[in-house]
FMN-binding negative transcriptional regulator
Amino acid sequence: MSVWSPRHPAEVATLVARHPLAWVVSRAPAFHATPLPLVADLDEERAVTALVGHFALHNAQVEALKAQPRALILFQGAEGYISPELVTQPQWAPTWNYAVARFEVEVEFAPEENGAALERLIAHVEGERPDRWTVARMGERYEPMSRHIIAFRARVLSCNATFKLGQDERPESLAQILAGHPDAELTAAMREANEAR
Protein backbone atom coordinates (compact mmCIF):
# COMPACT_ATOMS: atom_id res chain seq x y z
CA MET A 1 0.00 0.00 0.00
CA SER A 2 1.32 3.42 -0.99
CA VAL A 3 1.49 6.44 1.28
CA TRP A 4 -1.00 7.95 -1.20
CA SER A 5 -3.52 5.11 -0.93
CA PRO A 6 -6.81 5.89 0.83
CA ARG A 7 -6.79 4.72 4.45
CA HIS A 8 -10.40 3.52 4.29
CA PRO A 9 -12.96 2.90 1.50
CA ALA A 10 -15.07 5.72 2.95
CA GLU A 11 -12.47 8.23 1.73
CA VAL A 12 -13.21 7.21 -1.87
CA ALA A 13 -16.96 7.41 -1.22
CA THR A 14 -16.47 10.94 0.15
CA LEU A 15 -14.53 12.00 -2.95
CA VAL A 16 -17.36 10.71 -5.19
CA ALA A 17 -20.01 12.44 -3.07
CA ARG A 18 -18.19 15.80 -3.04
CA HIS A 19 -17.18 15.71 -6.72
CA PRO A 20 -19.96 13.81 -8.52
CA LEU A 21 -19.06 14.86 -12.08
CA ALA A 22 -17.10 11.96 -13.59
CA TRP A 23 -15.84 10.91 -17.01
CA VAL A 24 -17.39 7.68 -18.30
CA VAL A 25 -14.91 6.26 -20.82
CA SER A 26 -15.46 3.31 -23.12
CA ARG A 27 -13.34 1.97 -25.96
CA ALA A 28 -15.37 -0.35 -28.17
CA PRO A 29 -15.99 -0.06 -31.05
CA ALA A 30 -14.37 3.40 -30.71
CA PHE A 31 -13.34 5.61 -27.81
CA HIS A 32 -16.17 7.52 -26.15
CA ALA A 33 -15.98 9.80 -23.10
CA THR A 34 -18.97 11.53 -21.50
CA PRO A 35 -18.95 13.74 -18.40
CA LEU A 36 -21.85 12.72 -16.13
CA PRO A 37 -22.81 13.41 -12.51
CA LEU A 38 -23.05 10.10 -10.63
CA VAL A 39 -24.07 8.87 -7.18
CA ALA A 40 -22.61 5.83 -5.43
CA ASP A 41 -24.11 2.68 -3.98
CA LEU A 42 -22.13 1.74 -0.85
CA ASP A 43 -21.70 -1.46 1.13
CA GLU A 44 -21.62 -1.71 4.94
CA GLU A 45 -17.94 -0.64 4.95
CA ARG A 46 -18.83 2.44 2.84
CA ALA A 47 -16.94 1.03 -0.15
CA VAL A 48 -18.35 2.03 -3.54
CA THR A 49 -20.05 -1.00 -5.12
CA ALA A 50 -21.83 0.72 -8.02
CA LEU A 51 -22.27 4.14 -9.63
CA VAL A 52 -25.71 5.31 -10.74
CA GLY A 53 -26.55 7.92 -13.37
CA HIS A 54 -28.21 8.52 -16.70
CA PHE A 55 -27.23 9.17 -20.29
CA ALA A 56 -29.07 11.18 -22.92
CA LEU A 57 -30.54 8.54 -25.24
CA HIS A 58 -29.08 10.24 -28.33
CA ASN A 59 -25.52 9.85 -26.97
CA ALA A 60 -23.64 7.39 -29.20
CA GLN A 61 -21.97 5.93 -26.12
CA VAL A 62 -25.28 4.29 -25.11
CA GLU A 63 -25.25 1.91 -28.08
CA ALA A 64 -21.50 1.34 -27.65
CA LEU A 65 -22.02 0.33 -24.00
CA LYS A 66 -24.94 -1.92 -24.87
CA ALA A 67 -22.61 -3.80 -27.23
CA GLN A 68 -19.61 -3.77 -24.85
CA PRO A 69 -20.59 -2.83 -21.27
CA ARG A 70 -17.09 -2.48 -19.77
CA ALA A 71 -16.00 1.08 -19.02
CA LEU A 72 -13.70 3.21 -16.94
CA ILE A 73 -15.16 5.92 -14.69
CA LEU A 74 -12.82 8.69 -13.56
CA PHE A 75 -13.41 11.09 -10.66
CA GLN A 76 -11.20 14.02 -9.72
CA GLY A 77 -11.30 15.76 -6.39
CA ALA A 78 -9.26 18.66 -5.08
CA GLU A 79 -6.10 19.36 -7.06
CA GLY A 80 -3.52 22.07 -7.61
CA TYR A 81 0.06 23.18 -8.11
CA ILE A 82 2.33 23.49 -5.08
CA SER A 83 5.01 26.11 -5.64
CA PRO A 84 8.47 25.93 -4.01
CA GLU A 85 8.01 29.53 -2.88
CA LEU A 86 5.65 28.24 -0.18
CA VAL A 87 8.38 26.13 1.42
CA THR A 88 11.61 27.25 3.11
CA GLN A 89 13.29 23.85 2.74
CA PRO A 90 16.31 24.22 0.39
CA GLN A 91 16.08 22.48 -2.99
CA TRP A 92 12.40 21.61 -2.48
CA ALA A 93 10.89 20.82 -5.90
CA PRO A 94 7.47 21.90 -7.17
CA THR A 95 4.71 19.30 -7.28
CA TRP A 96 1.04 18.83 -8.08
CA ASN A 97 -1.30 17.51 -5.40
CA TYR A 98 -4.54 15.74 -6.26
CA ALA A 99 -7.16 13.20 -5.28
CA VAL A 100 -8.51 10.87 -7.99
CA ALA A 101 -10.46 7.62 -8.21
CA ARG A 102 -10.55 5.27 -11.20
CA PHE A 103 -13.27 2.62 -11.35
CA GLU A 104 -13.39 -0.25 -13.81
CA VAL A 105 -17.08 -1.05 -14.21
CA GLU A 106 -19.69 -3.05 -16.05
CA VAL A 107 -22.61 -0.89 -17.17
CA GLU A 108 -26.19 -2.16 -16.99
CA PHE A 109 -28.91 0.05 -18.46
CA ALA A 110 -32.15 0.29 -16.50
CA PRO A 111 -34.75 2.46 -18.27
CA GLU A 112 -37.36 1.40 -15.72
CA GLU A 113 -35.28 3.28 -13.12
CA ASN A 114 -35.16 6.63 -14.98
CA GLY A 115 -37.33 8.40 -12.41
CA ALA A 116 -35.58 6.94 -9.39
CA ALA A 117 -32.12 7.74 -10.81
CA LEU A 118 -33.07 11.35 -11.52
CA GLU A 119 -34.65 11.87 -8.12
CA ARG A 120 -31.67 10.34 -6.35
CA LEU A 121 -29.16 12.54 -8.20
CA ILE A 122 -31.18 15.70 -7.66
CA ALA A 123 -31.61 14.95 -3.95
CA HIS A 124 -27.86 14.44 -3.65
CA VAL A 125 -26.82 17.67 -5.38
CA GLU A 126 -29.60 19.79 -3.87
CA GLY A 127 -28.54 18.74 -0.38
CA GLU A 128 -30.52 18.97 2.84
CA ARG A 129 -31.83 22.54 2.65
CA PRO A 130 -35.57 22.75 3.36
CA ASP A 131 -36.48 24.46 0.05
CA ARG A 132 -34.49 22.09 -2.18
CA TRP A 133 -35.68 21.61 -5.76
CA THR A 134 -37.51 18.40 -6.74
CA VAL A 135 -38.63 16.98 -10.10
CA ALA A 136 -42.26 17.60 -9.04
CA ARG A 137 -41.67 21.31 -9.74
CA MET A 138 -41.35 20.53 -13.46
CA GLY A 139 -45.00 19.56 -13.63
CA GLU A 140 -46.14 18.28 -17.01
CA ARG A 141 -42.72 18.93 -18.61
CA TYR A 142 -41.13 16.11 -16.58
CA GLU A 143 -42.67 13.07 -18.28
CA PRO A 144 -41.83 13.96 -21.91
CA MET A 145 -38.29 15.05 -20.95
CA SER A 146 -37.68 11.83 -19.01
CA ARG A 147 -38.28 9.81 -22.19
CA HIS A 148 -35.03 11.20 -23.62
CA ILE A 149 -32.74 9.65 -21.01
CA ILE A 150 -31.73 6.17 -19.93
CA ALA A 151 -30.64 5.29 -16.39
CA PHE A 152 -27.77 2.95 -15.68
CA ARG A 153 -25.98 1.26 -12.83
CA ALA A 154 -22.24 0.70 -13.27
CA ARG A 155 -21.18 -2.26 -11.13
CA VAL A 156 -17.67 -1.73 -9.76
CA LEU A 157 -15.17 -4.41 -10.79
CA SER A 158 -12.13 -2.64 -9.35
CA CYS A 159 -11.14 0.70 -7.85
CA ASN A 160 -7.77 2.41 -7.87
CA ALA A 161 -7.62 5.67 -5.92
CA THR A 162 -4.72 8.03 -5.32
CA PHE A 163 -4.77 10.77 -2.69
CA LYS A 164 -1.46 12.57 -3.30
CA LEU A 165 -1.98 15.32 -0.77
CA GLY A 166 1.31 15.97 0.97
CA GLN A 167 1.57 12.80 3.04
CA ASP A 168 5.28 12.50 2.14
CA GLU A 169 6.17 16.05 3.20
CA ARG A 170 8.19 16.94 6.28
CA PRO A 171 5.87 18.29 8.99
CA GLU A 172 7.34 21.78 8.75
CA SER A 173 6.99 21.87 4.94
CA LEU A 174 3.41 20.63 5.12
CA ALA A 175 2.57 23.31 7.70
CA GLN A 176 4.06 26.01 5.43
CA ILE A 177 2.07 24.78 2.41
CA LEU A 178 -1.16 24.66 4.41
CA ALA A 179 -0.55 28.16 5.78
CA GLY A 180 0.37 29.75 2.44
CA HIS A 181 -1.53 27.99 -0.34
CA PRO A 182 -4.44 30.08 -1.70
CA ASP A 183 -6.75 27.15 -2.60
CA ALA A 184 -8.96 26.47 0.44
CA GLU A 185 -10.46 23.28 -1.03
CA LEU A 186 -7.03 21.79 -1.71
CA THR A 187 -5.64 22.69 1.71
CA ALA A 188 -8.75 21.23 3.39
CA ALA A 189 -8.22 17.97 1.47
CA MET A 190 -4.54 17.97 2.48
CA ARG A 191 -5.46 18.44 6.14
CA GLU A 192 -7.92 15.52 5.98
CA ALA A 193 -5.41 13.26 4.25
CA ASN A 194 -2.73 14.00 6.84
CA GLU A 195 -4.82 13.62 9.99
CA ALA A 196 -3.64 10.78 12.27
CA ARG A 197 -0.76 9.78 9.98
About this structure: The chain has one domain: 9-194.
